[in-house]
Amino acid sequence: MNISKNMEIFEQGNKYLMSTYSRLPVVFVKAKMQYLWDAEGSKYLDFIAGYGCLNVGHSNKFVVNALKQQIGKIIQPSNIYFNQSQVKLAKKLCEITEFGEKVFFANSGTESIEGAIKLARKYSADKYNSFRYEIISFEKSFHGRTLGALAATAQPEKQKLFEPLLAGFKYAVLNDISSVSKLINENTCAILLEPVQGEGGVYPADKKFMEWLRNICNEKNILLILDEIQTGFGRTGKMFAYKNYNIYPDILVVAKSLGGGMPIGAIISTEKISDSFGPGTHGSTFGGNAAACVAGLAVIDYLIENNLPGKSMKLGQYFLKKLMQIKKKYAVVKEIRGAGLMIGMEFNKPVAEKLVKGALYDKIVINKVSSSTLRFLPPLIITKKNIDRLVKWLDVNIKEI
C-alpha cells in the first residue's frame, strides 16, 4: 500500500509527538510570503500566518538575509554580556512604541506575560506594599498556557485541568466599565487585557472603554498592561493596536510577529517601572538571542518601509466589506468583527471545523477559534486577489451548509 509523503510524516508525528494539538493531515515543507507547499508539492494560500506570527510573510527574503548574516557571526551569547542586535532592537522598540524606555527579551508571548505579571507585582510591592498584587483580566481572554499566564486567561475550560492556579486574578467583562469598577480595590496592582481578544473570538475593545481604563489606572495608580502578542506590528492597522485608542500602556507585551518566524517575545515599559527588575529578579537564557533580535530588526524595518500597517487597515476594510456581503446573504452567519487584518466570522451553528477542513482540501489554510467561529490572520502582504479567492470559496461553501 502506497502512503503519501504527507501521511507518512503525519503518522510518525502521531507516534513520537505528544498529542497537545489536534493536527490536520497535511505537512508543510516550504513557504514563501502568503503561500505554503506540502510534502507532495501542492500549493496553499495561507490565512493563518502561523497564528499571526508572520505579518511580513513566510520566509521573507529581507528577514532571511539578515538571519543568514547573523548566524554566520554569533547566535547565542550569554545575557551576562550585551549583544549588538539585542541593544539595537531594544532601542528600536522604545522608539516605535513612543512610551517605552526599557525592554526585557524573552522567547515567547506566554513567557513575556509571565514576566509582565512579575514586574507589575514587584513594582507594586516596592512602591506600595506586598498585599498589592491582584490583577484584573477579562473573560474570553487568552494570555498563554504556562501557569501564571493561564491564571490570567479567563477561560474556565482551559484552567480547570491545571488547578490550583496562581492566586490573585479577578475577571471582568470586556467593554463593561461597571464589571471592572466592582473589582478594583486597594490590592489591585494591574489591569491586563488584549486590545482585541484573539482566541476568545476576535472581540475588539471599545474606544471609550480603553480611555476609561487608562484614566482609572492613572487615578488609582494601577498599571495598565496591554497584551499585544497578536495585535502588534501592524495587524490592526497601526504599528500597535493601542495607537487606535490614543492611549499608552504602562507595560506592553509583544511576541509572535516580532520575530518573523523566529521565537522572541518582549516586555516594554518605562524606566520607573522597569527599575523594579534589578539583577537576579528575572531572566531568560535564550531571551534576546542575537539571531532572533536581528530578525526582529529586519521585521520592523520591512513593516515601516512597506507601510504594512497602513496596508493592513485598507485591506482589512476591504475584507470586512466582502464578508459583510456574505453575512447579508446567509442567515447562518451571525457576526463579522475585527480590526485591520484580524477578523472573526461567527456562525449560528457549529460549522467552523467543517469549513476549516473543506478549505484545506481546496488548498486554503484557515483557522477556527471555536466550533462556531473562524479567525482570519493572513500575512499583511496578501492582496485583494487573495482575499477575493477566499471570499469566493466561503460564499460557495457557506451556501451549502
**Spatial shape:** globular
Distance between the termini: 35 Å
| The CATH C-level class name of the largest domain | Alpha Beta
The structural class is alpha/beta
Structure in words:
The chain has 401 residues and is α/β, with parallel strands linked by helices. 39% of the residues lie in helices and 18% in strands. It has 14 helices and 17 strands. It has 2 domains: 5-29 and 43-59 and 308-399, Aspartate Aminotransferase, domain 1 (Alpha-Beta Complex); 62-305, 3-Layer(aba) Sandwich (Aspartate Aminotransferase, domain 2), CATH 3.40.640. Helix 4 (84-97) runs parallel beside helix 11 (290-305) and helix 12 runs parallel beside helix 14. It starts with a helix and ends with a helix. A hairpin with a 2-residue loop joins strand 1 and strand 2 (35-38). It has a 7-stranded mixed β-sheet, with helices on both faces.
Structure keywords:
Aspartate Aminotransferase, domain 2; Aspartate Aminotransferase, domain 1; 401 residues; alpha/beta; 2 domains; 4-stranded mixed beta sheet; 7-stranded mixed beta sheet
